[in-house]
Amino acid sequence: MTDLSSPSAPDTIKIEASDSTGTIQRRARGFLALFFVAIGLYTLKGFLPALLWGCVFAISIWPLYRRAELRFGRSDWLPMIFTLAVALIFLVPVSLVGMKVADEARSALEWIDDVRNNGIPMPEWVPRLPFMATQATNWWQNHMTSPQRLSHLLHSVDVGHGMQMTKQVGTQLARRGTLFAFSLLTLFFLLKDGDSVIRKCLLGSQRLFGEQGESLAKQMISSVHGTLAGLVLVGLGEGAIMGIIYMSTGAPQPLLFAMVTAVAAMIPFLAWPTVGLVALLLLAKSSMIGAIVVAAIGSVVIFIADHFIRPALIGGSTKMPFLWVLLGILGGAETWGLLGLFLGPAIMSALHLLWTIWTETNPRKGIYAKDTEF
């Protein structure tokens, strides 16, 4: 028991009070930091997808940017050139698809106008239908070839609802365009100040989590690189191969369906419906051989890509089993949309690394992430 009458008693009390005050201040600073982080994320919640897309773009092209920087030197023009290149990669296909959709919409309006004036002529196959050719012919002549009946049917469509849907589509396009612009802006500044951002992120992770924090960061970045190669590049390769097959077999709109196949193939097993649709369209055109060729080659290409190439590229870069990779891709896409294709595997790679660290006898043996540049 401390003797309060001794000369050293006041100093002891001051030290204990000082330690208690320091602990309270550290906790208060921690709560204050969490509060501002939470309120900051809430303030930016509308722009978080744009910021995350900018980070994904920066991580994906960072190795290529570093090579260009070492070759041509550091300048403010280099980040701008890479940002413009990324913008063109997305804008050129979207513009082509938009022009094609506009042409198809104009053709559809012309067809509707022709139908209102002349009706729909009877196809040659209607009188040849088995068992019900007479009934089908009479129905078509009474309902489809009469401009008055078709005009009444077309006027019965809710035009106001169509206008409202068009307005909603325009609003969504404007919002998506704004978010894409902010993603490009984020990409530019991340490339411009990349070295400083990487250094500060590594320092912060080491202070908070130690060496394991740096390993987690590198593991997640390796996952983004693997996802880029395993999903995006493989999907583009599948779209290019199938586009050649579509053109060689005489499929309708081969360029448009090639782009749709490439985008769908970025998600495992999702390219099957697109290839099947093209095969059905060829079958409808009485091109049996073309439909068989598209279905057969498409099945082989998708099977090889989904079962051999994609797991090797994604799982090989992160040392994850393919089941983890598949769950990350599908779960991320369901939860986060297209952004989840990158976030899902990154989150699962971090969980897999934590599991490996926790199940090692010596936790330090679980740190196996490669010391590669971001």
Automatic annotation (TrEMBL):
Membrane topology label: Multi-pass membrane protein
TM ranges: 50-65, 77-99, 173-191, 228-249, 255-282, 289-309, 321-343
Listed InterPro entries: AI-2E-like (IPR002549)
Keywords carried by this UniProt record: Membrane, Transmembrane, Transmembrane helix
One Pfam assignment: AI-2E_transport
Localization in the cell: Membrane
Domain of life: Bacteria
PANTHER family for this protein: BLR8064 PROTEIN (PTHR21716:SF61), TRANSMEMBRANE PROTEIN (PTHR21716)
Record family assignment: Belongs to the autoinducer-2 exporter (AI-2E) (TC 2.A.86) family.
Protein name (database record): AI-2E family transporter
Gene source species: Gluconobacter kondonii
Classification lineage: Bacteria, Pseudomonadati, Pseudomonadota, Alphaproteobacteria, Acetobacterales
